[in-house]
Amino acid sequence: MTLGKIMGMRRVVITGVGMVTSMGLDVPTVWNSLLSGKSGVIKLSRFDPAVMERYRVPDDFPVIGGVIENFDLREILQARKDVVTKEDLKQIKYTDRFTQFALAASMEAVQDSGLNLEGEDPERAGVIIASGMGGVSSWEDGVQKLLAEGVRRVSPFLVPKMIPNLAAGNVSIRFKAKGPNIALSTACAAGAHAIGLAYRSIQLGEADLMAAGGTEAAVTILTLTAFYRMGALALGYNDHPAAASRPFDVKRCGFVMSEGAGILVLEELDHALARNADIYAEIVGFGMTGDAHHITDPDKEGARRCIQLAMKDAEVGPKDIDYVNPHATATPVGDRNETQALREIFGDGASKLLVSGTKSMTGHLLGAAGAVEGIFSALAIKHGIVPPTINLDNVDPECAGLDFVKDEARPADIRYVLSNSFGFGGTNAALVFKKFEG
Fold first, then answer.
1. Is the dihedral of CA 342, 389, 66, 54 positive or negative?
2. What is the reported pLDDT for 2?
């Protein structure tokens, strides 16, 4: 029995979800696109050709990404008039795109939860929102202004636009949440870490309600260049971007950068039941480890221990997990290590383990990835269906041995879902979600 069960820690459920991705600006749209196997990866139009020429961008530079076109927070807020204030509309010009994504997703999640926050104790409500990069576009714009026009042309709002905790800060202010208020920046594991730590806060009695997740808006020329120079991005797909993200495929060659946000409302079970809330799923396990191995190359052993810790926390064994939403960024080493770790843990049962790499459609949302995939995990439980992996034409023999859900969504009776997230620096997070059974 785990320490949490011995101490009688409180149960935590998901009662609201909100999402903004390249596949849609709300959860129903994204979920329907995901189930239909529709990719959100497109050719980028946001970079001026003159800029590309000035920076001597090479011919093989990837001008693709899971970007959100026509995003206008003002329009989104005005469409939700019942929760929007004049101050919300005024604040838009003082916030970076990553914060705006978080605000849009948070408002959807709170609305979806059915909570009346005016009737809640604000000191028992908190926010944990992660971002791997923060306001990198504002930072880039500030540097350009400084170099071209001088100190007095740099915005006085640059700092609150670019620092990573301002997404959590703005959401906290918007909903008057006075409980725990923190931001995480654990690279591509950050969104999952945010959910896990919010889960712990409620378990331990630090809060009754938490808005948790991740947000990212880092598809910029500098960030793309940095990952390109690192050799991490998928190349050769500028003319057919939807085929670029290929988890587990023998021809995978790197990830596709994306942007967006995913926010979950987590709630203490009795609090949710008292107001007859609709419950998506229960969070029952969280694990986190460090590889202590390499800053960018993942380590199979660290991933394996992380998954085992989450399963131990959930008090489940290999036979209990029905579906895995893996990290699966489509990097050669990462996908291989993760699948090998899963085979070691699940043994003979690995061949029956349903696995789908949803980054094949969303691309990689960096610090928001784990949050978006946490929502996918909860929705899979709620609706009894596993989304597909697209672009998986030929499974790499080094990744084989699992039941990959390919091309078409698959109905399934799902009781437990494992969701994995791993990040640069050797930081790992794993979550276990359970079908709510009273």
1. positive
2. 53
- Map residue 386 onto helix, strand or coil: strand
Amino acid at the residue 47? F
Q: Is 76 helix (H, G, I), strand (E, B) or coil?
A: helix
**pLDDT confidence of residue 298:** 79
Q: Which of 193, 306, 364, 399 is catalytic?
A: 364
Q: For residue 110, what is the enclosing H or E element?
A: helix 97-113
Alpha-carbon span 333 to 435, nearest angstrom: 32
Instruction: Give which of 101, 74, 348 is closest to 213, Cα–Cα.
Output: 101
User: For 9, which DSSP code?
Assistant: P
State the amino acid at position 114 in one-letter form.
G
CB 168 within 8 A of CB 127: yes
Q: Are 267 and 75 in contact (CB under 8 A)?
A: no
CA distance linking residue 310 with residue 242, whole number of Å: 33
The β-bridge partners of 287 are 430
Which domains are seen in the chain, by residue range?
A: 5-274 (3.40.47.10), 287-434 (3.40.47.10)
What residues in the chain have per-residue pLDDT under 50?
1
Query: DSSP labels for 251-305?
Result: T---B-BB-EEEEEEEEEHHHHHHTT----EEEEEEEEEE--S-SSS--HHHHHH
In whole angstroms, give the CA distance from residue 386 to residue 388: 7
Q: Is 364 a catalytic residue?
A: yes
How does pLDDT run across 100-109, given as a tens digit for each residue?
999 999 999 9
Is 306 an active-site residue? no
Q: Which residues is 261 bridged to in the sheet?
A: 20, 215
Of 211, 219, 307, which is closest to residue 257 (Cα–Cα)?
Answer: 219
Q: Which of 193, 271, 306, 327 is catalytic?
A: 327
Which H or E element spans position 15? Answer: strand 12-21
Active site residue 399: no
Nearest to 214 by CA among 294, 101, 300, 119: 101
Q: Which of 188, 271, 306, 399 is catalytic?
A: 188
Instruction: Decide if 50 contacts 216 (C-beta within 8 A).
Output: no
pLDDT value, residue 5: 55
Can you give the length of the chain in residues? 438
d(CA 116, CA 279): 16
CA atoms of 380 and 412, how far apart (whole Å):
9
**Between the CA atoms of 10, 15, 21 and 24, what dihedral angle is there, to the nearest 10 degrees?**
170
